[in-house]
User: Which sequence fits this backbone?
């Protein structure tokens, strides 16, 4: 393996080239990567089987995350093709004007530079991250989980060859090919060459990365997501949105964790919601007022309001009006995704204005908060940071900008 | 003085209110602040005189920065009024679309929250920072230099009263009223309440702040700014732009530090430029090729190319073509502001694409890189960071955004 500093230096050198390459060329590279992946499918599957065999002690959920099925393989290929087809985020004129002096000023999207992605098992992050990074003109250093190293080697190798075919530097995509923790620590020290680190995984990983580096880190923390069923919510919609938000996939950051039911409609709506959730095997934990309406609901503790279950458990609280709902969200939420179910324009206005979360939803499933359903195409995650990128992190969020001012001799007076 | 943690807590509480206040109300508060300043002008001037008297050992440049003249006072008042008149940066729809499902998705600018400003002598930063912060719906904690504490007390007091008059929380503006370094260290630990820190001052201040906190820091480092005189530059423009970029004000970050003269035109243009600079008392330090053209130019050392003089000194290097010019800028520049003087559209295109600086200028003075001349109105500085805000930091840059998605029952499939 090449030394980490050399790897970072190469990424920065490749970035100088990638920053000036046309969007057509980057899209071509992504298409070629999809093609290269298909050509090495057998190798990918064989390496993945070896990875799985080499780690017999992995938990079943971890094995599930590590395993590439045909369906996941197709998804990975399609993600690269979809990214190729997205509009180019680089070179967008974000704003601009001609000043009274005649100076033409424009704010133009440009690549950030070198992005390092540190993640755990899922090998599809390897191709997803490369797709988003290249789409936005960044070079990427990939550090996946050690248990998927064989798989990632084949994936990265195919993408690197495809980059060269497309006339891009091979080092547009690099894999940190080591299971050694020292390598990651060394990577975190490359502030001279790396512009952004994106850790994807558990809280402890994100915290360890943030505290071990001076490089900016885009953080993806908890989603303690809420739905507030307002007094005038449509009962059918309350049922379908709650069930979908909680059950469509329980282990993800935009799954519902706490339901806030307005006292004015709870007696009418909550039993319907509870019945549907119980059919899905969801355990309910409620405040005393909830339990008065739903007698077989377990009691919720204070800690429940601050818990991201990532499991078929839902906490339920009765609130008295929208202000109390928003106060609960402000106190216990994680600023990720929070929604209201209402038929009132005024309540929706107040909720949108008053809830300060990355995603604020009205009459929609919390599971829709993300890149695909927002029309961003490929994303590398959902940021819980407030600065630079908030919510889904797609190609546009991996851009920065520069100011370009063109004149004909303008001076400062 | 109230404890720092309590101050930060109050700022966060005030921020909850300020986030939902209308732009009209914030603009009204800024206008009232301008009015309040005028009403306490005598007090401001008296406090400022006391500050100056209390620090007789200050250097002359420091005294100059601390002193509020009538002209500076008027400038401070006008900055508040100008900020009031700017368009509201909050609530801008940054992008949006209706998805095929019917979900309406919008990305909307919202305030960051609580901004802490840590700065040195100039008391005008006290009002400028408050203006930009309030304009963008943020609450601000101001920590000015200890030598300007009396002045800042009067300024902050007037602005706080005006905020209350306008119906805003008093704690929309707070002054950290202490000369104690421990207070700053305590401020840096308030990550629960403070969303962004902006240090303004020398490198050592910025470095100390960045390393002492987990709160995001917007950094304003060096401006090692370049002008490249291309082979086809208009000689008159080369002279006027170089003189204005270097001499209009030497001690600021967007002043010119290194001139790159193309070998193809240097013999013709450089003597004219040098003569004009010498009339302004600028010391020239050149590479050997420069000295062959300008015999009385001093020799430049390697270190000169990496130096931000902030003084009437200019380094000059002969380069052979635009690639060499851009390579010099990439190696020695600080990514702040770099410009080209050319009459060729093709050279300007290549320079704009190839130079990765916060501001890239064509045929304009480096001194124009900034908020006013870019049409942003008030700014709190020029960021040398790549993420979130790059270049001038105005009201728009003190915003983050949230995604708002409005549907009628959309589920995730």
Assistant:
């Amino acid at each position: 393996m090449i030394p980490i500093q050399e790897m970072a230096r190469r990424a920065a050198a490749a970035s100088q080239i990638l920053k000036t390459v046309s969007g057509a060329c980057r899209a071509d590279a992504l298409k070629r990567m999809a093609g290269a992946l298909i050509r090495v499918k057998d190798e990918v599957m064989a390496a993945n089987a070896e990875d799985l065999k080499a780690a017999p002690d992995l938990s079943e959920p971890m094995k599930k995350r590590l395993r590439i099925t045909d369906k996941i393989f197709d998804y990975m290929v399609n993600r690269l093709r979809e990214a190729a087809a997205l509009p180019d985020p680089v070179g967008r004129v974000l704003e601009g004007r001609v000043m009274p002096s005649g100076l033409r000023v424009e704010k133009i999207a440009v690549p950030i530079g070198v992005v390092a992605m540190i993640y755990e098992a899922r090998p599809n992050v390897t191709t997803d991250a490369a797709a988003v990074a290249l789409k936005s003109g960044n070079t990427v250093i990939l550090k996946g989980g050690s248990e998927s190293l064989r798989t990632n080697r084949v994936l990265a190798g195919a993408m690197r060859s495809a980059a060269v075919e497309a006339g891009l530097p091979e080092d547009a995509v690099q894999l940190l090919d080591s299971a050694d923790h020292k390598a990651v620590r060394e990577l975190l020290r490359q502030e001279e060459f790396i512009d952004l680190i994106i850790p994807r995984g558990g809280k402890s990983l994100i915290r360890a990365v943030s505290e071990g580096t001076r490089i900016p880190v885009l953080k993806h923390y908890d989603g303690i997501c809420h739905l507030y069923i307002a007094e005038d919510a449509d009962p059918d919609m309350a049922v379908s949105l709650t069930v979908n938000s909680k059950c469509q996939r329980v282990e993800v950051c935009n799954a519902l964790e706490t339901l806030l039911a307005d006292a004015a409609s709870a007696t009418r709506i909550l039993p319907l919601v509870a019945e549907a959730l119980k059919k899905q095997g969801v355990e309910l934990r409620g405040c005393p007022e909830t339990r008065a309406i739903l007698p077989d609901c377990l009691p919720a503790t204070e800690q429940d309001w601050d818990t991201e279950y990532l499991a078929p458990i839902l906490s339920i609280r009765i609130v008295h009006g929208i202000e109390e709902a928003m106060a609960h969200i402000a106190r216990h939420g994680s600023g990720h995704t929070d929604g209201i179910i209402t038929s009132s324009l005024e309540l929706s206005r107040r909720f949108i204005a008053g809830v300060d979360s990355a995603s604020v939803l009205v009459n929609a499933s919390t599971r829709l908060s993300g890149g695909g359903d927002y029309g961003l195409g490929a994303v590398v995650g959902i940021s819980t940071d407030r600065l630079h990128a908030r919510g889904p992190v797609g190609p546009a969020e991996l851009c920065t900008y520069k100011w370009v001012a063109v004149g004909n001799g303008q001076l400062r007076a």
Q: What stands out?
A: Residues 225-368 of chain A form a domain with the Aldehyde Dehydrogenase; Chain A, domain 2 fold (CATH 3.40.309.10).
